[in-house]
Each structure stands twice: as structure tokens, then as C-alpha cells.
Amino acid sequence: MKKIYCILLVIFAVTNLPAQKQSYDLATYVAPAGFTKQAGEKSIQYTQEDKAKGAYCIITLFKTLPGTGQSKPDFDAAWESLVRETLTLSVSPVMQDSASENGWVAQSGYSTFESEGNKGIVLLVTMSGFQKLVPVLILTNTDEYEPVITSFLESIDLDKPMAEEVNPGIPEKEAPVHTNTAPVKSGFAFTRTEFDDGWVSTVQEDWVDVRKGDVKILVHYANGNIKPANTDVDVMCAAAWNALVAPRYSNIQNYKITPGVLDYERPYYAEAGLTDNETGKTVFVALFRKGNTSWMEFVCPDRNTFIQQFGLDVTTITYNVESNIWDKLVRMNNYNKFAIAATDFKGKWSDHFASNTYYTNIYTGMSAGMSTYTSSQSFEFGAGQSYKWQLVMANSYGGNTRFAQGKGAGKFTVLNNWQIRFSEMEGKPKTYDAYFTAVKGGRVLWMNDAQYPGSGIYTGFARSN
Fold it and tell me: Which of 162, 337, 454, 460 is most buried (most C-beta within 10 Å)?
């Protein structure tokens, strides 16, 4: 299989491929024919599997990352985060000679690995230049994909990144009021996420800190000190404001709440001008929650900045206002999202679900009974990337109860920062799209069957201490 990796010096060779090139971030390339394409937040992945032969090939092209300006340190850092942490390798990679073209320098290295009882090869190619880094990660267990890998790597062309505009003469008063914040230490590999649209999330003790420019959002964790007497907007907002906002500010001015609106999910919104006790600066603060979102605290230099960023002016809201005016605020809840690593999976993770369905006779309007569905699902992770999975379900109707269960055990592999693969679940391997949300003192793991990426049906698992 070593002959696969002797071709890497032609990465930047000029080729005249008849296939149409595709673009992704700074890269243009020819997609491997017959592979399944899946786009994520930080990468694009091409996968092909021959179940009859047990062969597979996974090619992942990552978006541009910050680089050091030196190709070998860039490669070492990428190998540590993309390979060693996900595949739990103990050996160093076998390195190839570097190649350079148009300001980019390519480094490549490979190593054998064992996953789910099968041996394979992991190949990492990094392209460094202009203080940027573009990684390509390839996993395969056969040399049958050598022509495909060769063609893909040969087809890659990289553009030069646009120069960032810098204005050293910007007055101090116009500088962003929020600087980057360091994440709190935890037992998880990733405590910071840089999103493609410029927002940056970091895990804090009592909230997730989300920032871009001079706007900051605190996505608060559940807080037991919020104890409203009822669910009226004024009562709920006052209880949340007093517990989450008031202790860190003073000199409140122009406190406003949203009026009652016609909406299937009641929005709770309050705003005011305040003095930040830590910095002494005057800021605008809005507190918001709707449906299943967390309480979110929006902090801006002034009210106009908030309105321009999120398109919401509470003074214009009426009873019949369109529900979509809250969408930009609601979406900020999704920035509580962090990548996974193999070292994160320890102990037992479980979730529980229950629902009732009530039936009515369409002719008489009388009750026709009720059915109840309950389920309990768990993963127990052990040494050597081993796991045990169990799902137990019960469905009751008309005095009868039916039970069902599923089981699985084997080895798991974290394919990339957002996917995990299990070797056996009900007799076959399964891959999930996965990510963490942060909670007070821990994480919740969300997983969705990678075969149905558009379903949006994620299952959340909390870890037992």
C-alpha cells in the first residue's frame, strides 16, 4: 500500500482533467466520481464503501485554518488534532518530502491504524501558505482507491487568500467593546468553535460566550434561581432579568418588554440601558427566550447596533406581528455547539423519552383512549475505544403493552470533528453526525444518523457521573 503515498509530490502538478472542477473555500478540485458527498460546517467529505469486500475510502477536505507560516509545524499541529486525537495513534507518521507552488507548501505523512478490527492507512496532506493551512485527510483500507486518491490530490488548486484590511488608525472609542475571552478548562477536547460566519463561541462556567465584532451574546445555562410566579411576559422577564442580568450591571434605564403577541411559541423579551459593573461602560442589554431556546443575553454598545444586527425594534412590535421577526435571535441559540474527540467519550451516556397520544372518536367526539410511548437509550464507553449500546422501548394502548429492544457492542472511531462511527449496532456499522452542547459542569451529546443528514432528528445524551 505504500505506493499510494509515493505520488504526493504531484499535488500541485498542472493537469488537464476533462471533469468539471468544484470550488470549496480556497480550493478548486475535481470531485471523486461515484463517491457520496457530505458538506459540514468546517469540511467537505467524499465517501465510498464496498460492503461486499469490506473496503472503504473517506476523503475529507477542510476549510482554511490559521497557520503558523511554517509547513512542518502546521502539519504537526494538524496531525495532533485531526489524526492522533481521533484515531488514538501512538506512532509518528511516515513523512514524505515537501512540495511547493505559488506560495503554498505541501507536507504529507501517513500511518497505519486499526479501527473496528480492520487495519487501514490514514494519510494527512497539509498545504501551508500566507499564514493559512488547508488540510486533506484520507482514510482507506485498500490500495484499490489509489487512482481516485491520486486524481483528487492532483486536481487541487489553491487560491491566495484575500489580504485582510487593517486600519491601525482606528480611534480607541470605535474599537470593539468586547475582546476575545478564554474558555474555561474542562475535560473535553474542544471548548471553542469558530463559525464560518465570523461568530466565535467559547465555553464559560455559567454560559456560552458568543462574539463577533462589538456584539456579545451569553447563552445562559439552566438556572434554578429563575422562579416566576406565572408565565406572563412581565413576570417571566422580571424573574430571569433579576437572576441573570441584574447582578452584573447597575444604573438601569429605559427598561422595556415586548407586548403580548399572537404566536404559537410565546416570546419573552426585555431590554434596557445599563452600566457594566466590570468595565464601567454603558451598554445596551436585551434578554430573550422563545420555545426551547436558552435565556440569551445580547450585549451591544448601543440600541442601534442591536437593531442593525438583529433587525428587531421592540417599540414597533404589535399583537399581529409576523413570527419570523424573532428568527435571528432564536438562531443564536445554535452557537452553543462544539466538536467531538475520541477522548471525550468516557463512562455512560443516556437519554430517556416519553410521550402520550390522545384519541377521539370522529363521529361522537368522545375519548377513544390514549397510547403511551417510552424509551431509554444508553452508550457505555470503555477502554480501547470500546462501547456497549442498548435501546429499550415500550408502547402501551388499550391495556396492552409491547416491548422491544436493540443492542450493540464493539469499537468506535471518531472520523472527524463532527462524526462518529460505531462498528456494530443491531448487526451493522453505523455513522452519526455528532456535536456537543455545553451545560453547567458538562456536555450533552447530540447524534443524528449520517445517512439522513437532512432529517434534523438528533438524539441527546447526557453523561452520568
Answer: 337
Phi and psi of 306, rounded to 5°? -65, -45
| pTM, entire model | 0.62
Under 8 Å between Cβ of 198 and 279: no
Residue 316 pLDDT more than 80?
Answer: yes
Cell representation of residue 52: 461486499
| DSSP states along 454-465 | TS---EEEEE--
Which residues, at least 6 apart from 287, have a Cβ–Cβ distance to it below 8 Å? 237, 240, 241, 244, 245, 268, 269, 270, 271, 295, 296, 297, 298
Q: In the beta sheet, which residues pair with residue 59? A: 46, 138
Residue carrying C-alpha cell 462556567: 205
**Distance, CA of 104 to CA of 101 (rounded, Å):** 5
Q: Tell me how long the chain is.
A: 465
Cα–Cα distance measured from residue 70 to residue 127, given in angstroms and rounded to the nearest whole number: 10
- Strand, coil or helix: 323: helix
Q: What is the pLDDT of residues 106-123, one digit of tens each?
A: 889 888 887 666 678 899
Cβ neighbours for 408, distance < 8 A, ≥ 6 positions apart: 387, 388, 389, 390, 422, 424, 425, 426
Query: What is the C-alpha separation between 265 and 94, in angstroms, rounded?
Result: 56
Whole-angstrom distance, CA of residue 309 vs CA of residue 286 = 13
Enclosing H/E stretch for 24: strand 22-24
What the block records as the C-alpha cell of 151 is 486524481
- 407-413: long-range contacts at Cβ-Cβ below 8 A with a sequence spacing of 24 or more? 410/116, 410/117, 410/386, 411/115, 411/116, 411/117, 411/384, 411/385, 411/386, 411/387, 412/342, 412/345, 412/381, 412/385, 412/386, 412/387, 413/86, 413/87, 413/115, 413/116, 413/342, 413/385
pLDDT digits (tens, 9 = 90+) for 216-244: 999 999 998 899 999 899 999 999 999 99
Q: How many CB atoms lie within 10 A of CB 249?
A: 19
Which helix or strand (DSSP H or E) is residue 234 part of? helix 233-240
Task: Give the domain ranges of the chain.
Answer: 2-158, 174-183+201-335, 342-463
Per the structure block, which three cell numbers stand in for 19? 471533469
Give CA 201 to chain center in angstroms: 11
Q: Is 27:156 a contact under the CB 8 Å cutoff?
A: yes
What's the CATH code, domain 2-158? 3.40.1000.10
Let me know: does 158 contact 127? Beta carbons within 8 Å.
yes
Among residues 75, 39, 61, the alpha carbon closest in space to that of 138 is found at 61
The C-alpha cell that represents 207 in the structure block? 454560559
Cell of 53: 469486500
SS3 for 235?
Answer: helix
Based on the number of CB atoms within 10 Å of its own CB, is 186 exposed (0-12), middle (13-18) or buried (19 or more)?
middle
